[in-house]
Design goal:
mainly alpha, globular
Length: 116
Amino acid sequence: MTIWVLAAVLAAGFVAIGAAKVLALPAMRERAAQFGFTVAGYRRIGILEWAGAAGVLIGLVAPVIGLLAAFGLLLLLAGALTAHARHHDGLREAVPALVFGAVDAAYIGLTIGVLR
């Protein structure tokens, strides 16, 4: 049951933030510019976030796909934390990536347990 909750949290979070990037909402346009991304580049990141969210949900019936998707999301989160660090953002700006990283790591751990 817990893996279902973690998958739902990851999917909902990444669908939402991916949508903000794909739709190029004003806050995302500003963030893209601050990080040195084009809007098109930020949209591609949003699409990758959607793909990761879908993969995590698919992982509920095909755990290997979920595991691969979760590792992909972890790479995106590492990139986000690197961007925050390079721009000397405070903890407040990095907390979402840290929280989702922890949820993702828990999902990965439980999925590995399912595969054993």
